[in-house]
Amino acid sequence: MPSAEERVWTSLPHMMLDLAGGWRERPMLRHWQGGWQRMSWGEFGRRVAAIAAFLRSQGVAPGDRVLLVSENRPEFPIADTAIMAIGAVTVPTYTTNTVSDHAHILRDSGASFAVVSTAKLAERVAQAAAQAGVALERLVCMEDGAPGCLDWSAALATPADLDLLAAEVEQIPPGRLACLVYTSGTGGLPKGVMLPHRAMLANREGVARIATRLQLDGTPYLSFLPLSHSYEHTVGGFLLPSLGLEVVYSRGADRLAAELKEVRPTVITAVPRLFEVLRGRIEAQVEKDGGFKEKLFRRALALGLKRLDGPRLNLFERAQHALLDRLVGAKIRDRFGGKLLALVSGGARLDPDLSGFFLAFGLPVIQGYGQTEAGPVISVNPPWENRRSTVGPPLPGVEARIAEDGELCVRGELVMDGYWNDAESTSRALVDGWLHTGDVAEIVDGYIRITDRKRDFIKTLGGDMVSPAKLEGLLMAEPEIAQAVVAGEGRPAIVALVVPADGAADKVQAAIARVNGKLSNIERIRGSTVVDPFTVENGLLTPTMKVKRRLVLERHAAAVEGLAKRG
Predict the structure, then answer these.
(1) C-alpha to C-alpha distance for 289 and 450, rounded to whole angstroms
(2) Other C-beta atoms within 10 Å of 369: how many?
(3) Is 434 helix (H, G, I), strand (E, B) or coil?
(4) Nearest to 105 by CA among 89, 86, 120, 119
(5) Which residues belong to any copy of the AMP-dependent synthetase/ligase domain (predicted)?
(6) DSSP 465-491
(7) 16 to 13, 19, 169, 188: CA distances (angstroms)
């Protein structure tokens, strides 16, 4: 068959089943089940055909929405591809969702069929359906024996004709709705983003050029972010596998350090919070070692940053850097497996100081940018021309412009069809084909630099406009501070709610003083208080580690009021 770069596909199932036919024996997925287990592309195709036949036998029809709730495991992409292959629409949702979260999505999407991974999740979804007043016609559980559920193993036994399904999916038009991905809901109820096949295929076409140049074909990708998130759903679920990478599903955050050394991936995708945690752990170990080891580390970091930012290293410094890279840098790279070609950060702004820390030791941290509403990848820094203060140039085929008020707008095949059941929000987001991102940005030499969120400015009592994103980013860049939310709307001064890093509660004020030293008078933090961590469990953190600012401020309204009065 022609190479993956030469093929033209009209839909995601068309792409996946075509590759399954040509790469039958090639490893596609690796997951842990008492040891690492591999699944070939051929086996993947056979299972997709069986699940597709089963769904049809249960009455799932084109256009029907099917809820998919699962951890990262092979059954997720199998179900996802099978749902789309028969013309239905996948609604991927987080395993960490509450009953109320699921109820909202079931009610809004109109899904009447669900595929879940465990009996516990099946129970939660059933409760959500009852709360939403939705009649779930069928509920399939990947782990057999769940009460009231159809068994996955029985579904896999459904007779199916893979060749017939492969021919059928060739007729799916690129504009057909593929999935409804619900946004994280940092500012209110999640909205269902309507993504057609063309949006995610456009993402693939744009990223393929970078992957080809990096020669990623046949290398492992460690999948860590949840597949229900729009980024991992597109990139880890379809894009990277189709480019020939073997997807390895991580067992979770507590196993990540060991898996990096064991799997030795060439690509990892992460959110900025993970980089903060990793830097904190490295710094803590360095401080614990102290003495000569710490001096070597500090000198290696200083030379690495100078090599990145200039001025150019002199002859003695180059020799010193080469030695320290072997003594210090190589050990840090080894923590990540030693084979990384791209360590991609997305989901939120990555502070240049944070990325610089890792780049100084030779780790290929590149920042990208996107939104669920754009497939979701809009731009990414190429590793060979990485400008860490930016989110890179737009992908090929993506038009980008800056509106009069500074807002970044993008246009192209990657843009959503709109928000499900929400014409008003759709009309605000999509104007003449341009997606209004809500981010304030500038474009310099073709590279996008995000400066602020358009709607997230704080206007103080004195009429000054202050960016909370900037202040919170600076606070969380301090090793003593794990999380932070600032407030000050309509108040005389800016105040902060701070979650200290482990064992650093008594050092928070010193960290805030350092941040204030970098700020203008109107931006400085005049009061602060320590609060409990923001977590997914307490509803203050999205599953992709974004702080729900509005809910944090509501929950700590009394504390903010007290700080404002003292300030």
Answers:
(1) 38
(2) 29
(3) strand
(4) 89
(5) 24-420
(6) EE-HHHHHHHHHHSTTEEEEEEE-TTS
(7) 5, 5, 10, 35
pLDDT at 567 over 70: no
Asked if the 458-566 domain carries CATH number 3.30.300.30, the reply is: yes
Supply the mean pLDDT for the chain.
92
**Topology of domain 270-338+340-453, per CATH?**
Rossmann fold (3.40.50)
Q: Which amino acid is at 113?
A: F
**Tokens 């482990």, located at residue:** 502
Confidence of residue 4 (pLDDT cuts 50, 70, 90): low
pLDDT at 465 exceeding the cut of 80: no
Tell me the two tokens of residue 428: 């605000």
Which is the CATH superfamily of the domain at 12-182+215-253? ANL, N-terminal domain (3.40.50.12780)
CA angle 254, 260, 265 (to 5 degrees): 140
CB 437 within 8 A of CB 410: yes
Using alpha carbons, list the distances in angstroms from residue 370 to 123, 367, 394, 469, 520.
34, 10, 10, 17, 30
Alpha-carbon distances, residue 533 vs 92, 253, 473, 480, 482 (angstroms): 27, 17, 16, 13, 8
CA dihedral for 63, 69, 72, 73, sign (positive or negative): negative
Burial of 107 (C-beta count, 10 Å sphere; 0-12/13-18/19+)? middle
Domain pair 12-182+215-253 / 270-338+340-453, same fold? yes
Separation in Å, CA 483 to CA 79, 199, 369, 476, 538: 36, 34, 22, 6, 14
Instruction: Decide if 374 contacts 201 (C-beta within 8 A).
Output: no
CB count in 10 Å sphere of residue 203: 27
Strand 27-32 and strand 36-40: the pairing is antiparallel
Domain boundaries, the chain: 12-182+215-253, 270-338+340-453, 458-566
- pLDDT given at position 2: 46
Helix (H) or strand (E) holding 59, with range, is none
Q: Which residue spans within 183-335 are E strands per DSSP?
A: 192-196, 220-223, 246-249, 267-270
pLDDT in tens, 65-104: 999 999 999 999 999 999 999 999 999 999 988 898 899 9
pLDDT value for 542:
82
Per-residue CA distances from 233 to 119, 169, 238, 480, 506 (Å): 23, 20, 7, 33, 41
pLDDT of residue 37: 97
Give, rounded to a whole angstrom, the gap between the first and last alpha carbons of the chain. 69
Least confident span in 99-108, 113-122, 187-196, 371-380: 187-196
Instruction: Please name which of 52, 45, 66 lies closest in space to residue 112, comparing C-alpha atoms.
Output: 66
**pLDDT over threshold 80, residue 565:** no
State residue 205's pLDDT score: 93
Sheet strands (E) in 232-312: 246-249, 267-270
DSSP letter assigned to residue 387: -
The token duo for 340 is 């990384």
